Amino acid sequence: MSTMTHYMELLAVNQPWNLLIFMAIPVICAETLAISELIILFTRNLNSMAKKVSKVVGIFAGLYFLGIFIYLLFTTVIPLTLTGGWRGPVDVIAVVFYLLGVIPFVGMFLLEIGAIGRNRDEVSQLKLHAILVGIFLVVAHVAMIFGMLSPDLFTMEGMGGM
């Protein structure tokens, strides 16, 4: 029986650095973005410090998580797939959902630099930005939940050899 998913193993090794690099920084970015979105929503001030913070963090988070995605794709996902090293469906779900965070974060980056949504008004861009923050929070939480499960849960061994 495996003791933990690759997701949890990644966070547990090389303490505290992996936890900071792969969990703390992306989650702090997402929470900063969520809070700034709420401030902008409630104040309706599209020129506030919260909007500036949101823009800077959106750009940083997109580039940062793209780096994480590329690194983990080549150092973990491809090797585990080629060698059959996955620890069951729970393991795959945890890692895939973690990596899916690249889509909303890169989307925010592209929105902030004007590569997408430039024909939208500011309120429409803000709505898209908030949707992308929400998507990141959902995929990150799915990754965390599955990452904390036993990787054997949905395997024949985890089901008592049924």
What is the count of helical runs? Answer: 6
**Number of structural units classed as domains:** 1
Report Rg. 18 Å
Strand content: under 5%
- Percentage of residues assigned to helices: over 70%
* Average of pLDDT: 93
Structural classification? mainly alpha
- Biggest beta sheet attributes: none
Number of strands: 0
- Stretches where pLDDT falls below 50 for ≥5 residues? none
Q: Encode the helix/strand succession as letters.
A: HHHHHH
Protein name: Permease
InterPro entries: DUF6803
Verbal overview:
By secondary structure, the chain is mainly alpha-helical. 73% of the residues lie in helices and 0% in strands. This is Permease. It holds the Pfam family DUF6803. InterPro entries: DUF6803.
Summary tags:
162 residues; mainly alpha; 6 helices; DUF6803
Concise summary:
Helices cover 73% and strands 0% of the residues. The chain is an all-alpha fold. The radius of gyration is 18 Å and the shape is elongated.
Write the layout of secondary structure elements.
Layout: H1 6-12, H2 17-43, H3 49-83, H4 89-100, H5 102-112, H6 122-148
